[in-house]
Design goal:
The protein has five helices and nine strands, in the order E-H-H-E-E-E-E-H-E-H-E-E-E-H. By secondary structure, the protein is an alpha+beta fold.
Length: about 220
Amino acid sequence: MLLEKRQIYNFSLVALGDFNPKIIQPFWLANKGLIGEKEAEDANIELIHSELVKYSLTWVDIQIQQNRFELKSSQEPYFESIRDLFIGIFSKLQETPMKSFGINHIMHFSARDEQEMFNIGNNLAPLNNWDMLNNPRVLNLEIVENKRSDGFDGKIRVKIQPSDLLIGSNMGFSISINDHYSFQEKNQTTDNVLKLISSQWKSSFNSAQEIINKLEEKLFRL
């Protein structure tokens, strides 16, 4: 089973908009009751600047640019906490304009050997179509659903490529699923963003699971 081969699950919640990075520092989070004082004290701060703020707590990495906000973790028990932190932050910053957000699933799977990696690529894009090349290999494959089937504005993008985390004897591949939602200007309010994240949270995980299941059924045949 494909899921039995999953070694790493990186998850991120990303929003694009107009942000003031320096506001959202660890002690601001603590002051707003979103994290504990001890968490704020123990935060690993990499950079605090007007254009970029970057730090991590024990369970989440936080990076804020003027046009991009990201919460990221590889600890599955905290994925819902990422949602709650995002909603908590922007409930306090209701005037923040956001034009889109993405719920992103990046899963890394192990492969037995080079032959299995070859078979995976060959199933995804049959290499006998490329006999004009000597010893061809699939580097990556990216498929996009330009019009969402659920009626929301946005796209779903799936990318399959060799894992940049599982290498050498632990070789593997990754499947990235970008569940992207965008807003028309009339609906571009922080409250609408937060409501949509809450309402679509579970379905995003279900959709990612369905994509993985269908890929296994149709393509991987491991």
